[in-house]
Amino acid sequence: MYQPFLQEIFNTGPLNVAEWVFLFCIPIPLFLLEEARKWAARKISKNN
């Protein structure tokens, strides 16, 4: 939700391209690591 009047209150501005790339690229490895952790936990629990 975009509220221009809040930019002055919180001293914020629009994101540039580098910030958008950062926001989209950082969650991908975190997601993959979490899925690998869950896979390993399932694999270990099946062996016990």
TrEMBL record:
It holds the Pfam family Cation_ATPase_C. Residues 1-39 form the Cation-transporting P-type ATPase C-terminal domain. Gene3D superfamilies: Calcium-transporting ATPase, transmembrane domain. Keywords: Membrane, Transmembrane, Transmembrane helix. The keyword Transmembrane helix applies. The keyword Transferase does not apply. The chain crosses the membrane at residues 15-33. InterPro entries: ATPase_P-typ_cation-transptr_C, ATPase_P-typ_TM_dom_sf. It comes from the Bacteria. This is Cation-transporting P-type ATPase C-terminal domain-containing protein. It comes from Lentilactobacillus kisonensis F0435. The lineage of its organism: Bacteria, Bacillati, Bacillota, Bacilli, Lactobacillales.
